[in-house]
Write a structure and sequence with these properties.
Elements: H1 17-24, H2 35-55, H3 59-66, H4 71-79, E1 100-107, E2 122-131, E3 136-141, E4 147-150, E5 155-158, H5 161-179, E6 185-190, H6 192-201, E7 204-208, E8 212-216, E9 221-225, E10 228-232, H7 234-242, H8 250-268, H9 277-287, E11 288-290, H10 294-304, E12 313-316, E13 319-324, E14 327-332, H11 334-344, E15 357-363, H12 368-380, E16 383-390, E17 397-400, H13 407-416, E18 425-428, E19 440-444
Parallel strand pairs: 1-6, 3-12, 12-18, 15-16, 15-19, 17-18
Antiparallel strand pairs: 1-2, 2-3, 4-5, 6-11, 7-10, 8-9, 13-14, 17-19
Length: 447
């Protein structure tokens, strides 16, 4: 996580009329970021199919809901037959066991009645790296304001302008050229999909970390939430995700979206959710665009059964904010960005003889005793505690700063230090804003 407030655009110099119009209205629109697209991807392509897999052994249910001779019934009954042979892999991906990079894009709206995809900006850009061999998933967020060079002599732009100017092909080429990686597949999800999915589910259980009150009459956004555990309906969820009056700006919204994912996945995995699958699949058909075939999606769904949400490693491309006139850019740090790419895309692991690591512990006042116990156990496992402090954070995290702090090390440490289980979310951030020269930071916040 970074301690800066990213300013929204109120003007953009793009020559594309549609893009200019959108950029001028950006201040009025509350756009989702980072994990929103992972949320929707899990809902539609992973969560939905995963839920069907959970109950697909119930042949009678599938026949009642989808029809005895329907393609969906036949497909999922066939795919789940592999459950009878536990010693074998439960999926047979069409591309074998090679790693795949899936580009996930969240697009905004051009207004009521406009085309869902034409001229839209991609305000959420995430690369999912899937490794079928290890059954693991990494996710890299590309900040929407990242300053890039567009292909075909389109000049310098924010990366979210690529789709508005040149569609999905320009978006893919821009990312491949900027990061030096290959994009295998893409999934685009319209903003409206989130609202529709939550409506279909009947709401989601979310812990609201603070009182949230905000009214935007022109934007028809009204937020009135109190701190605590709530079952939020669709409009309340949208307000929770779009609330932007945080000390840390978009970073606060990103954190809420990450924890919304957990609540959403919990909702999807409830037995009663399976009866809502036909409606959710209809929503997916209207609000999702992809170059994946149904067969490919079904294979990813089979693989998704092995994913552990707590075991996903995430990162945001590191850099720093820069403002030129009325335009705010995110200037990528080339060295740190390459470090993120090497780790999460190429799965680079650097061996080390280092046996002692240095840590920072941040905790809320309610977790002071847990922090003390954690510090004692870490010291007993050869971890030096350099910095400790209180925090107002609402969710726990384990943030690796050193390239030597891997998931394997975290998993080993978790077995040695039971209290570490509270810091479920694993983040890689090579830029350490908390305490210089520490290898990792643990945040204990109780949620």
């Amino acid at each position: 996580m970074t301690n800066y407030t990213e300013e929204d655009n109120i003007q953009n110099s793009s020559p594309i009329d549609k893009y200019i119009k959108q950029a001028e209205e950006e201040e009025k629109r509350e756009n989702f970021s980072f994990i929103k697209i992972i949320i929707v991807m899990f809902i539609i392509f992973i969560g939905v199919l995963f839920a069907i897999f959970l109950f697909a052994d119930n042949k009678e249910f599938l026949e009642d809901e989808f029809g005895q001779d329907s393609f969906i019934t036949k497909l999922f009954i066939k795919l789940t037959k592999s459950n009878e042979a536990k010693e074998k892999a439960e999926f047979a991906l069409p591309f074998g066991l090679k790693k795949q990079n899936i580009l996930l894009l969240g697009v905004d709206s051009n207004g009521e009645g406009s085309d869902l995809w034409e001229g839209t900006r991609t305000d959420t850009i995430v690369i999912l790296n899937i490794d079928p061999k290890s059954k693991s998933l990494n996710a890299i967020s590309i900040p929407r304001d990242s300053k890039v060079y567009l292909p075909d002599d389109k000049g310098i732009q924010k990366i979210n302008a690529a789709h508005a100017i040149g569609g999905i092909n320009m978006t893919i080429r821009t990312i491949e050229d900027t990061l030096g990686i290959r994009i295998d597949k893409y999934i685009m999800v319209h903003d409206e999909a989130v609202r529709k999915i939550v409506e279909a589910l009947g709401g989601v259980d979310i812990y609201v970390e603070k009182n949230m009150h905000y009214n935007d009459y022109s934007g028809k956004l009204h937020i009135n939430l109190t701190k605590g555990q709530h079952h939020l309906e669709a409009d309340e969820v949208i307000g929770y995700l779009r609330f932007r009056h945080d000390a840390m700006g978009d970073i606060g919204r990103t954190q809420r979206q990450q924890w919304f994912l957990r609540g959403l996945l919990n909702e999807i995995q409830k037995p009663e959710t399976i009866s809502k699958m036909p409606e959710i699949l209809k929503i997916a058909k209207e609000y999702v665009k992809t170059n994946m075939s149904l067969y490919e999606m079904s294979q990813y769904a089979a693989l998704a059964k092995h994913f552990d949400v707590d075991n996903i490693e995430i990162a945001t491309l590191p850099g720093s904010p820069n403002k030129k006139g009325y335009t705010s850019y995110w200037i990528l740090d080339p060295e740190k960005t390459q470090e993120v790419i090497n780790r999460l895309i190429y799965r680079e692991r650097i061996k080390t003889d280092k046996t002692q690591f240095v840590a920072t512990i941040l905790y809320t006042k309610d977790n002071a005793q847990d922090a003390k116990n954690l510090i004692d156990m870490l010291k007993n496992n050869n971890v030096e505690i350099k910095c400790t402090d209180t925090t107002t954070a609402t969710h726990s995290q384990f943030i690796a700063h050193s390239k030597y702090i891997t998931k394997e090390y975290y998993n080993w440490l978790e077995k040695k230090v039971p209290n570490l289980d509270n810091a479920r979310q694993f983040v890689f951030d090579p830029v350490n804003y908390y305490c210089a020269d520490t290898d990792f930071t643990i945040i204990l916040a109780g949620q």
